[in-house]
Amino acid sequence: MSNKVYRVVNLITFYRLVAAPLLLFLLLTGQFTVFKWLLALSFFTDAIDGWLARSFKVISLLGARIDSVADDLTILVAILGILLYRPGFLRGEWLLVGGMTLLYVMQNCMALIRYGKLTSFHAYAAKVAAVLQGVFLVLVFFLPEPVAFLFYLTAVLTIIDLAEEILLVLILPQWQANVKGLYWSSGRLKSAALEDKMEHDEDQGQDHGHQEQEGIRIYVSIYFSCFQ
């Protein structure tokens, strides 16, 4: 059962990966109606594959990597759609959009430098931000005007998510997938540091015991040699 669910989850995620260039093609050829419905389907599958993976405990490193890439491509195509069909909205919010873009580029560059590949943290903040991003980016193509409050809420949570991911890159020495967040990661690092300290103290104690035994042995040897 778990193998079947695993394959289904990966196929749903892979669909979103394949759909991204198709969405781009629909944009460039002016097929806006098909584009917005297919975009809505892509964001829906993002929620479905994540729910299935968590419910049936079939989370994998491969799935996490594909999911991250598919998410980024879907969002980038959606933003390109706004540039083509609602350019005035982005021009009016250039400061927030520019700030989020800068944080996104920083996070990816830092990850490539530190780990040699992009991150797949999937922290709680990222999941909440992803839901809001999907809702906003779908509604912006179906409603007459973008919902300003939803945009600002999405922007704030996206900035929080990106800032947290930058900090995670800084504190995590090795690449990790499906990290809950900064709080849990720092707790694990403290626990690991405490375990290392306890092992170090234990090793030092053993070394000290060996030194004492060796000292006693030498002292006994010298004592008996005096009477020979």
How would you explain this protein's 3D organization?
By secondary structure, this protein is mostly helical. The chain is built from eight helices and no strands.
Task: Please sum up the structure shown.
The chain contains eight helices and no strands. The protein is an all-alpha fold and about 230 residues long.
Helix content: over 70%
The termini sit apart by 80 Å
Q: Please give the largest β-sheet.
A: none
Question: From N to C, what is the helix and strand string?
Answer: HHHHHHHH
* Stretches with pLDDT under 50, minimum 5 residues: none
Shape: globular
What do the pLDDT scores average to?
A: 84
Please report the number of helical segments: 8
Assembly form of the protein: single chain
Radius of gyration computed on alpha carbons = 27 Å
Structural class: mainly alpha
**Number of β-strand runs:** 0
* Strand portion: under 5%
Structural topology:
Elements: H1 2-28, H2 32-55, H3 61-85, H4 87-92, H5 94-115, H6 124-142, H7 148-171, H8 182-225
Helix pairs in contact: 1-2, 1-3, 2-3, 2-6, 3-6, 5-7, 6-7
